[in-house]
Write a structure and sequence with these properties.
By secondary structure, this protein is α/β, with parallel strands linked by helices. Helix content is 49%, strand content 14%. A hairpin with a 4-residue loop joins strand 17 and strand 18.
Amino acid sequence: MKLAYSYIRFSSLEQAKGDSFRRQTEQARLYCDSNGLDLADLTFKDLGLSAYHGKHVKDGDLGNFIQAVKEGNIQKGSYLIVESMDRLNRQKVSTSYRQLSELLELDINIVTLQDNRIYTKESLNNLGDIMMSLVTIVRAYEESEIKSQRLKAAHEEKRKQARENHKPTGYNMPHWIKLTDTSYELIPDRVSIIKRIFQMSIDGLGATAIHKQLNAEGLKPWGRSKTGWHPSYIKKLLSSSTLLGEYQPYKNVDGKRTKDGETIPGYYPPALDPITFKRAALAIKSRKGKQTGTRKNHVNNLFTGLLICQNCGSSMHYINKGSGSKGGQYLVCSRARQGAHHDGISCKYASMRYPIIEDAILTVAVTLNLKVTPNGNKEEIDQLKELLSHTASNLKTAEIAISNFKEAIAKRGPQDAYLDAIEQNEEKKKVYKKEKMQIEQRIDELELTPLSSNVWKELKKTLQVMKKDAADRSNVELRAKISSLLANCIERIEFDALEKLVTVVIDEQRNCILRFDAKQKGYMIKPSWDRRELLPNTFAVKETVRNYHRTK
């Protein structure tokens, strides 16, 4: 008994909810019973794959069937049962007929149930069979082509209405927005989470640390994720201008999703203000290529990226030796730890106890109230804004020129001079657009990077309220914020582990030297603006008095 295989396809998954699958399966079974064929248990099916674009051959089961025949896993002389010829293909006539011929030449008999016809290898030499198959193929292609053009026109009209009238398209919306009868509205609880994510990023947390924190708190993600928040989605959120209310339309070009024009500002209600969005972008940029102190849901080292060995210039490493009498957390010169020699320089191994260092530096930070001269950025910002205006004007001129030459072509037909001019102005447009973006980014850096004076105030305020909580290394949000603030107001921290000296370098003019005793039981503070070494309590009192007189 000859073996038959059923092939079932429909282009929309919505059809699976109807009777299409059951109908095609039942028809194949009845045909086999009536014609002495053995219906194989293996059914080839492409549910929701378009035959018009050939996806069922490239990525689907029909392609798998053809490959199985070529490899000998399906015997020649077998039957392939389909409801109608258009289930096999709806592509261009030449492509569809070539595919049909390939199956027949592989000695596969094709049964079309709708018209009860059988196409065999001999059909390739039968004019009647060829004509009938071609008529069916042409009709299927034309139907799909008309449907495709109608859908394309409908989508174009939706995009046009979105651009001109901000009319909702009905397409998939951002996860923090819902569609009412007439407009888009924000979903308040989701917007609150978005704002928190951005603040966490500004405070120094990366995407990995943020997603772990959200999952640890049991916050349910939105979208299709069934396994909690993911770093990839956090990164996508942090860079999405849709949060500012922008909408980027897309269209299908040769099967590829392609941008359709510029973004549409003000299309959605904004979930975030531009300043917060830019501050997060600057924070991410400042962390790029740098290590963070976050490890396994703990911020162990508040000073990552700041610690330098005073003796050899290498970085200091944080080491956790665990619990027990010989355990604890320490800071060690990386070169001394590896026993490395570089350019004739080596370093002697000596360690300093990290918890005591952290407490001492935070004690100094919470006491200081430095008067910082504001950054002299105003002149540079004014120059950049003038340059930005000039570049934006050049960009507009190039765009107008392109539009004018296109109108000239529409009226007088294509001419080499017009085409060359368009090409030249398109190149200018790219250059000016890139320059404009770079200038805007630099202005943001100057205007939005917090002044040192403001950072010190925020650091002091945070430590005064939460210094005790900051000692908990699992308090990721708080410790990441403190770490970020420290990185913005301290230039570096130098260590002489042999002499038990720690120098907190605030800027080129000011520093605080912490001199620890041999066992790090206590320490003295020597600020560069005072001639004496002071005990921590004395230092705190003197700084308070000094600040009081300075503000009078």
